[in-house]
């Protein structure tokens, strides 16, 4: 393999780069097992969306790595892999803090997930919450020269039947319940780590190892008025439709919180013990892959992707975003307590026998009151994009001013998005979260 080019100027494609640099280095470092020697890589040109979820910020390459050598290998020596590159548009990468997010994802897989597994009664089950991590060359200074050639390599779960849910935004109760049980297991592993005699060190590991991904030039999402500028949309829509004044007080409280801008979000994200956990940070349908029962077509299992925005914070960070982003208003009304119970079942699944559960339904509701605005804030800009008939105009979003960007976001999705965001604010008020 010495004849493979290694000079960046000779890489005519990302596939060449993988073949010349990434996979030989990964094999040499033991990513594919002891004794494995890299032979070749075959890219798969199929549409990867079904097996990767809707990945807006990353570019995905699927393929098969062929190995030789003494290592025990699958039949034929082929290992199906998924390779994540940063978005090829440098402006989009910069706008979305992709260098920091890539480094966080590497840290999560290489350091934090192993720490969680070490405290688990079944370490293999802890690792199985995510696809198997194989290799990354991500660095904290990923924005430096060659930063866009940094990768994250995972074992593909597509051959095991995992794929994105057919529903692009709103999941039915079966999908939601399954995802919440896995989320509970993920959070429960944090409580195990903290209860195992090294609680402070685990919290410190999370906060010291992870880098911030949502602050840009000192502001949350690049603007001193981003929170109120986008979050005000649903609040205003509810206020306009509230002819009886039933939600006036909740609307006033929400507006006051939104007007706190970056300081409000910093408070939402500040970990408070004893209930803080290692959060996924972007737990939603786009980062979940389901496996379906071939006989019934019903979801049987789910794995989680893309912990690039992981952080140590309230469990409500993950709960509020997922439940407000990917459930309908009708399902929230019908199943909310059932959803909370499924999450707590997941925590119980990994809590050692004889140890009290680390949180209750009352704790979950209290965390939602204090930190649930996180989910609404993210839905305010993400949900309109997901229900909009046209994809986001990346060119305009990456070249316009901060105020123009807010205006574009608030136009996305039209009245339908207004109504969806208003329904979230209304639910928060009805539940006492606002």
Kindly describe this structure.
The protein has 434 residues and is of the alpha+beta class. Helices cover 50% and strands 14% of the residues. The strands form four sheets. Strands 1-2-3-5-4 form a five-stranded antiparallel β-sheet. It has a three-stranded antiparallel β-sheet with strand order 6-10-11. The longest helix has 37 residues, at 173-209. 47% of the residues are buried. InterPro entries: CHK_kinase-like (IPR015897), EcKL (IPR004119), Kinase-like_dom_sf (IPR011009). Residues 152-353 form the CHK kinase-like domain.
Annotation field: number of helices: 16
Strands across the major sheet, in which order?
A: 1-2-3-5-4
Largest sheet: 5 strands, antiparallel
Proportion of β residues? 5-15%
**Structural class computed from helices and strand pairing:** alpha+beta
**Number of strand elements:** 12
Mean pLDDT: 90
Helix content: 40-55%
If you compute it from the alpha carbons, what radius of gyration comes out, rounded to the nearest whole angstrom?
22 Å
* Multimerization status: single chain
Euclidean distance between termini CA atoms: 61 Å
Question: What's the structural blueprint in terms of helices and strands?
Answer:
Layout: H1 14-28, E1 36-44, H2 49-52, E2 58-69, E3 78-86, H3 90-95, H4 98-118, H5 123-127, E4 133-136, E5 151-155, E6 162-163, H6 173-209, E7 215-216, E8 219-220, H7 226-241, H8 248-258, H9 261-269, E9 277-279, E10 288-292, E11 299-304, E12 311-313, H10 316-325, H11 329-350, H12 361-371, H13 373-387, H14 394-399, H15 402-411, H16 414-430
Antiparallel strand pairs: 1-2, 2-3, 3-5, 4-5, 6-10, 7-8, 9-12, 10-11
Domain CHK kinase-like: 152-353
Organism: Aphis gossypii (Cotton aphid)
Protein name: CHK kinase-like domain-containing protein
């Amino acid at each position: 393999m010495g004849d493979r080019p290694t000079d960046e100027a000779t890489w005519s494609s990302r596939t060449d780069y993988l073949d010349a640099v990434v996979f030989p280095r990964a094999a040499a470092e033991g990513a594919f097992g002891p004794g494995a020697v890299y032979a070749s890589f075959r890219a798969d040109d199929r549409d990867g969306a079904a097996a990767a979820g809707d990945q807006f910020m990353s570019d995905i390459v699927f393929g098969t790595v062929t190995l030789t050598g003494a290592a025990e290998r699958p039949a034929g020596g082929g290992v199906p892999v998924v390779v994540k590159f940063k978005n090829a548009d440098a402006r989009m990468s910069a706008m979305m803090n992709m260098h920091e997010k890539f480094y966080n994802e590497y840290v999560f897989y290489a350091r934090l997930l192993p720490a969680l597994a070490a405290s688990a009664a079944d370490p293999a089950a802890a690792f199985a919450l995510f696809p198997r991590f194989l290799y990354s060359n991500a660095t904290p200074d990923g924005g430096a020269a060659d930063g866009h050639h940094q990768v994250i390599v995972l074992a593909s779960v597509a051959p095991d039947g995992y794929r994105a849910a057919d529903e692009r935004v709103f999941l039915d109760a079966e999908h939601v319940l399954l995802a919440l049980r896995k989320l509970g297991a993920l959070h429960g592993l944090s409580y195990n780590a903290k209860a195992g005699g090294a609680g402070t060190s685990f919290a410190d590991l999370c906060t010291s190892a992870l880098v911030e991904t949502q602050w840009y030039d000192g502001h949350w999402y690049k603007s001193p008025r981003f929170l109120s500028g986008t979050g005000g949309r649903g609040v205003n829509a509810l206020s306009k439709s509230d002819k009886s004044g039933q939600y006036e007080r909740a609307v006033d409280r929400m507006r006051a919180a939104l007007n706190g801008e970056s300081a409000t979000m910093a408070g939402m994200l500040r970990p408070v013990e004893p209930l803080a956990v290692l959060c996924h940070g972007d737990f939603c349908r786009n980062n979940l892959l389901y496996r379906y029962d071939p006989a019934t077509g019903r979801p049987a299992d789910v794995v989680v992707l893309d912990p690039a925005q992981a952080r140590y914070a309230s469990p409500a960070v993950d709960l509020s975003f997922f439940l407000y982003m990917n459930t309908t208003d009708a399902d929230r009304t019908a199943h909310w307590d059932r959803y909370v119970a499924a999450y707590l079942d997941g925590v119980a699944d990994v809590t050692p026998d004889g140890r009290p559960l680390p949180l209750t339904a009352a704790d979950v509701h209290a965390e939602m009151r204090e930190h649930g605005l996180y989910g609404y804030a993210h839905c305010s800009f993400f949900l309109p994009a997901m229900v909009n008939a046209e994809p986001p105009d990346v060119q305009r979003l990456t070249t316009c001013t901060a105020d123009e960007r807010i205006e574009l976001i608030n136009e996305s999705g039209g009245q339908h998005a207004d109504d969806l965001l208003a329904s979230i604010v209304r639910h928060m008020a009805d539940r006492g979260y606002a």
